[in-house]
Amino acid sequence: MSAQAGAVAFRSDRSLVGIALFIASESLFFLGIVIAYVVFREQSLATAKAHLDVGRTAIFSVLLFASSGTVAVATRRRSPRWLALTALLGGAFLAGQGLEYARLLGAGLRPGSEMFGTTFFTLTGLHAVHVLVGLVLLVTLFAASAARPRRVANAAWEGIALYWHFVDAVWVVVFSVVYLGTIIG
Question: What is the pLDDT of residue 10?
Answer without folding.
Answer: 45
